[in-house]
Amino acid sequence: MEIQIIKTENPKEKPESSVLGFGKYFTDHMFIMQYSREEGWHDAKIIPFGNLSLHPASTVLHYGSEIFEGMKAYRRADGEVQLFRPIENVRRMNNSAERLCLPQIPEDDAMQILDTFVSLEKDWTPAAPGTSLYLRPFMFGNDETLGVHAVHHATYVLIASPVGSYYKEGINPVKIMIEDEDVRAVRGGTGYAKCGGNYAASNRAGQRAEEKGYSQVLWLDGVERKYIEEVGAMNVMFKIGGEIVTPKLTGSILPGITRKSCIEVLRDEGYTVHERLLSVDELGEALKNGTLEEAWGCGTAAVVSPIGELCYKGVKYTINNGEIGKVTQHLYDTLTGIQWGKIEDTRGWTYPIR
Ligand SMILES: *Cc1c(COP(=O)(O)O)cnc(C)c1O
């Protein structure tokens, strides 16, 4: 595909890595392209970073047709910049698009967009430990009418933001509250799609948990409120009686790339990993009888996030003395080692940017 490049005349000053935080600063450019049923994807270009202009009736503003991805470019010790399993993000975005009746992007084109854009913005990839260049591809329905139907026009945008280390003060286990009122998603709904609407529907429970001193909620399934699904914006794993258990992908859970990578690493190393239904009662039993050894969330932002405390129906349970467990630490070291190029990538997961 042809990508027109219009470079900025006013490159910004790059922030110090100590002030980065998450998603506060943006690079000099953005990629944007348009879709119409008649023309397909067209007008692909990289332009100076700036505001979008939308018709007030644009579909996304009224009916929420929006999907996104989240991935990172990592600066290796040798100075090179690389992506981690980008094809997985490309495929997942197409699955999300299919669910929301948004147009898919041919895999080769999506990879070319990522490659071209990151290559242009490469210098924005910070080098301090734990920092990275966060990439946010997103797509939205953009018909200029209030009629409700599958979209005829869509816009795809890719922006990038240098982000700080998730664990500035070391890896601290988080407190998680099991949510038994609101649900995030139901089977047959959009749980497996990475769409903005899922987040809009999650905010209330997240806010209530925060007010009680918990950092995120652990979602239960939307039908019986019985089975563990995932944590906020992360998948969740438990070590129970020496074996790893993670909820299976039933359609209401986001199929995380970190989840998939953790499972592959663990199985390669001989751990037994069960992808199955896990009820909150079974988890409660394991908490009480001491067989729950470790619990952690996993996602691109944190890689893994140890869970030190779970609260269910007002009762608090401490996990592994509120400390990070061995398997959790090992997964963190292995995945970050591959991502930042400190450990050899034997699985073909990394994608160098030239
Ligand atoms: C993005 C996301 C995850 C984690 O996926 P990764 O590919 O590992 O980053 C988990 N749950 C939800 C709801 C998400 O949006």
Distance between the termini: 18 Å
Per the CATH scheme, the topology name of the largest domain is D-amino Acid Aminotransferase, Chain A, domain 2
| Number of DSSP E strands | 18
Helix content: 10-25%
- What coarse outline follows from CA principal-axis ratios? globular
SSE topology string: EEEHEEEHHEEEHEEEEHEHEEEHE
Domain module count = 2
Low-confidence stretches: none
Helical region count?
Answer: 7
Bound molecules: pyridoxal-5'-phosphate
Describe the structure concisely.
With 354 residues, the protein is an alpha+beta fold. It folds into two domains: 4-163, Aminotransferase class 4, branched-chain amino acid transferase, N-terminal domain (D-amino Acid Aminotransferase, Chain A, domain 1), CATH 3.30.470; 174-339, D-amino Acid Aminotransferase, Chain A, domain 2, CATH 3.20.10. It has helices at 59-63, 86-99, 107-121, 196-211, 257-268, 280-288, 326-339; strands spanning 4-5, 29-36, 40-48, 66-68, 71-75, 81-84, 132-141, 153-163, 174-179, 216-220, 228-231, 235-240, 243-247, 273-276, 292-299, 303-312, 315-318, 350-353.
